[in-house]
Write a structure and sequence with these properties.
single chain, 377 residues, Rossmann fold, seven-stranded parallel beta sheet, six-stranded parallel beta sheet, 13 helices, Glycosyl transferase, group 1, transferase, Glyco_trans_4-like_N
């Protein structure tokens, strides 16, 4: 079987694509990975080169959620159709909604990693303004034209149906991470956060705000500037200092680490005793999975999607409640028994979410698509 796997190069979707491509290749699937939205970072590029037989196509087109993207979205569609004509995959696996309506020869699976409408509802408490109507239409048309739809959580699947239906219930395939990439280490009194600092949904600003109230230092990894995101992501973060590697840090203002290569992030998480993710919106939460694999005790926003995966494995705080976040972190900093119990439970749960089960679930979806199309790989 050959699969054309499409992903953007911004944030966790690229990580997801790397894990899936490697796991599919290990199962004998030929993978053509098409990435757009910007250059693939060098660390990710090294991982791609290690995947047997993988073909990587790359372009810098603006993504459908970016500012004035539609000319680029059209050009990206022609680019993807050209790749399909040349590579002739059995299945096209798309990570962008608008591309679902393209006239591919092969059956199309569209995977919803997030959407602006559900983001806006969760973060701004209202529907997006009329300036997003074209985005809404593109999402609705792409989902309606797809041969199958999937999401990484049942919560995200329900959001797609609620905002962009009528739509058959999407398949739910949780994301997976290779546990060998995030081994636990000797823990230190350190609270970690990770996520795009420019995205109000991720809660980095809340963690930065409460950092001066905590007895332990706080370090936050993540990009600080948005890649042309249509004016959505403008949350301020507290001032901090960049720090390139784990070491002793003083309590006080959050230490902003910037974007880290995966190995550097893994080193920080291996050392951190606590990981906090006070998100307002989270379709799945790859950073939480990575922290759990690294043996961190989790403090999470009480969101439907996070409860779905981590119920019984975390301390829960209401979204947008800085006082509750600070109190939960202070309690956990002072309770080593509770930290250890939560870390053990979270890691056990995380070990079920590997790239192997994720790839097997997608292979089942691919086979179903081919059977319905009357084709054989």
């Amino acid at each position: 079987m050959k699969v054309l796997l499409h992903a953007d190069a911004v944030g966790g979707v690229l990580t997801y694509a790397l894990e899936l491509a490697a796991a599919l290749a290990a199962r004998g699937v030929a993978v053509v990975l098409a990435t757009e939205g910007g250059p693939v970072p060098e660390g990710a590029r090294r991982r791609l080169r290690a995947v047997p037989g993988l073909v990587h196509e790359e372009a810098g087109f603006r993504l459908e959620w970016m500012d004035e993207p539609w000319d680029d979205v059209a050009r990206a569609g022609e680019w993807l159709l050209g790749i399909e004509r040349r590579e002739r995959p059995d299945v096209v696996h798309l990570g962008a909604f608008a591309h679902g309506r393209l006239p591919f020869r092969a059956p199309r699976l569209v995977v919803g990693h997030s959407c602006v409408v559900s983001w806006y509802e969760a973060v701004r408490g209202a529907p997006p303004p009329p300036s997003w109507d074209r985005y809404r239409r593109a999402v609705r048309e792409g989902l309606a034209a797809a041969d199958a739809v999937a999401a990484a959580s049942a919560a995200m699947a329900r959001a797609l149906v609620r905002h962009h239906g009528p739509l058959a219930p999407p398949a739910v395939v949780p994301n997976g991470r290779d546990p060998a990439r995030f081994p636990p280490g000797e823990k230190a009194p350190l609270v970690m956060g990770a996520g795009r600092l420019w995205d109000e949904a991720k809660g980095a600003a809340a963690l930065a705000r409460v950092a001066p109230e905590l007895p332990w230092p706080v370090a936050i990894a993540g990009e600080a500037r948005a890649p042309g995101a249509h004016g959505l992501h403008d949350a301020p973060v507290a001032p901090g200092v960049a720090d390139p590697a784990p070491r002793a840090l003083p309590p006080g203002p959050a230490h902003l680490l910037g974007r880290l290569e995966e190995a550097d992030l893994a080193a920080w998480l291996a050392r951190a005793a606590v990981f906090a993710h006070p998100a307002r919106y989270e379709p799945f939460g790859l950073a939480v999975l990575e922290a759990a694999l690294a043996g961190c005790a989790l403090v999470l926003s009480d969101l439907e999607s996070l409860r779905e995966t981590w119920d019984g494995c975390a301390e829960w705080v209401p979204p947008r409640d800085d006082a509750a976040l600070a109190a939960a972190l202070r309690r956990l900093c002072g309770d080593p028994g509770r930290r250890e119990a939560l870390a053990v439970r979270a890691r056990a749960r995380a070990l079920r979410l590997g790239p192997g089960p994720m790839a097997d679930a997608y292979l089942d979806l691919y086979r179903g698509l081919l059977a319905r199309a009357g084709a054989r790989p």
